[in-house]
Design goal:
Elements: H1 3-14, H2 17-37, H3 41-61, H4 125-160, H5 163-182, H6 186-214, H7 218-249, H8 253-273, H9 289-293, H10 296-326, H11 331-336, H12 339-353, H13 356-377, H14 388-416, H15 422-450, H16 452-466, H17 483-486, H18 500-503, H19 511-519
Helix pairs in contact: 2-6, 2-7, 2-8, 3-4, 4-6, 4-10, 4-15, 5-6, 5-8, 6-7, 6-15, 7-12, 7-14, 10-13, 10-14, 10-15, 10-16, 12-14, 13-14, 13-16, 15-16
Length: about 525
């Protein structure tokens, strides 16, 4: 292709909202692959490096027991990770020394084999209980940091536009991915996860706001949001299975190095399409965050996003450990357990995104009820196959809520405030992050205090109880200053509210102004 042809292709691409949708799709995809790829890796990596490492050191420091010794050491061997052919035996010598069931068996106890965990289960129940809390805090660190950064990113997008924040998000995401690949301790993993939260905040707030600005029509915006959230769903879909398989068969660093390469491709795509050096502030003065936070309809929509995603956020750190303890699952199953939820989420976001402008409130209400019922069914599972139904229902229902609420947030700003979207999508992302911050951080504590089944009951009942509030979004009233624009329109009727002057802020090409003048 000649240089002139390349420039023409780039100019055409920058004028196309579809290519902007591709950029946002890829950014959300990579962010959420990194979000979930660590889910099956971190619990077993910490167990291998900390518990087994400490046990191996302790056992090598102990002197070898003699056959005549009245007692064996507290643990005569350390259980290998997946094979329990040798097990730690308290109060017994090796099996070869007890051919007739005699020897050092304590008096009053029958000469039988001591209680051991089923084949494939992990030792160290107390360590695993503590790990629930530690892994939950590590997973929550990303969302907590994102929670703090989001409002500032929303204000930044109103001042300089969406393109530079999108590229900043890519840069930070790349650094976080590389750090994950080479981190060998809990502290470094924690820092990498928190750094991911900063990058994710820039990418998600700027990306969703950019989509809302280039798709001003409610119907098109709902479809575009559904496709973009499909990138989120695909990332969740790929992340956990990809991480568990690569970790088991290739090594810990391998999935993160692959993601780092894909992040570089995304950065090149952003340079070509978005021109991140160009400052394009919002043409419309944004409504202050404090005003949006006092809007009860925006708060109801944000609450639905928060509570529905809190369920899967609580599952991420606790379900793999519960599977290790009760199902004795091998490493690869820990990530595959989330596959049904991811596939159904992908279906739900694409199916209900186009319905959001008509019956988003109904989709959200039904979705939250199904989330609660699915969570109540998770503890009834006895193996990975019986997790398919509850997890599939959970993913599909969360897809209903997310794909309905994201366009509704933009619609509420159009209807009741000024159509500048960076701030409202910062609030939406804050709600999403609150679910992923509160869920993992409190989930591990509740599991340790009450048990995994009661955790699922608690968050399931919470979702079912919140669902009726979505009825309030059925017909939200318009603000007085917007009534003139909307006087002849029914609630949730597809309509473009962005003035023509704002529409000419995009395309991003310099030739666009000249073309507009010639057209005039």
């Amino acid at each position: 292709m000649s240089p002139a042809g390349s420039q023409h292709w780039l100019a055409t691409g920058r004028a196309s909202p579809r290519l902007v949708l591709v950029v946002v799709f890829v950014a959300l995809l990579l962010d959420n692959i990194l979000l979930t790829v660590v889910v099956p890796i971190v619990p077993t990596f910490l167990y291998t490096t900390e518990y087994e490492g400490a046990s191996s050191s302790a056992s090598s420091a102990l002197p070898e027991p003699t056959p005549a010794a009245p007692r064996a050491p507290p643990f005569s061997s350390v259980l290998s990770y997946f094979d329990s052919t040798t097990v730690p035996v308290r109060g017994f010598t090796g099996a070869a020394e007890l051919p007739n069931g005699t020897g050092s068996s304590p008096p009053g106890h029958p000469p039988s084999t001591p209680q051991t965990p089923p084949r494939g289960c992990l030792e160290g129940g107390e360590f695993l209980a503590q790990e629930n809390t530690r892994v939950g805090l590590l997973f929550a660190s990303k969302a907590l940091v994102q929670l703090l950064v989001n409002p500032w990113v929303g204000l930044l997008t109103n001042r300089i536009g969406y393109h530079i924040p999108m590229f900043i998000g890519f840069t930070i995401m790349f650094l976080s991915t590389v750090m994950f690949a080479f981190s060998g301790t809990y502290t470094l993993l924690f820092i990498a996860r928190a750094l991911q939260g900063v990058g994710s905040s820039f990418s998600s707030v700027a990306g969703l706001g950019l989509l809302a600005s280039v798709y001003p029509d409610d119907s098109e915006r709902g479809s575009a949001m559904g496709i973009a959230l499909g990138g989120l769903a695909l990332g969740v879909l790929i992340g956990a299975p990809f991480g568990s398989i690569m970790y088991e068969f290739v090594g810990k660093a391998s999935p993160f190095l692959v993601l780092a390469f894909l992040a570089l491709v995304d950065g090149a795509l952003q340079l070509c399409i978005l021109q991140p050096s160009r400052i394009s502030p919002e043409s419309t003065k944004a409504t202050p965050v404090s005003t949006l936070l006092r809007d009860p309809y925006i708060l109801v929509a944000a609450g639905a996003l928060c509570f529905s995603n809190m369920g899967v956020a609580m599952l991420e750190p606790t379900l793999p450990i519960w599977m290790l303890q009760t199902m004795c699952s091998p490493q690869w199953q820990l990530g595959m357990a989330f596959l049904p939820a991811s596939i159904s989420y992908l279906i739900g976001t694409n199916l209900f995104g186009i319905l959001a402008n008509r019956m988003g409130w109904l989709c959200s209400m039904i979705g939250m009820a199904v989330v609660g019922i699915s969570l109540l069914c998770v503890p009834l599972a006895t193996n990975i196959y019986s997790l398919i139904g509850p997890n599939a229902g959970l993913g599909f229902a969360i897809g209903m809520v997310d794909s309905s609420m994201m366009p509704i947030m933009g619609y509420l700003v159009d209807l009741r405030h000024s159509p500048a979207y960076g701030t409202v999508y910062a609030i939406a992302d804050v709600a999403f992050c609150m679910g992923f911050a509160i869920g993992p951080s409190t989930g591990g504590v509740i599991v340790r205090a009450l048990g995994f089944p009661w955790l699922m009951v608690t968050v399931g009942v919470l979702n079912v109880a919140y669902a009726p509030l979505c009825w309030l979004l059925r017909s939200p009233p318009a603000a007085e200053e917007r009534m003139a624009i909307l006087s002849q329109e029914c609630p949730m009727q597809p309509k473009s509210y962005t003035p023509k002057e704002a529409l000419r802020e995009f395309p991003l090409t310099e030739e666009s102004d000249g073309e507009a003048e010639n057209a005039g």
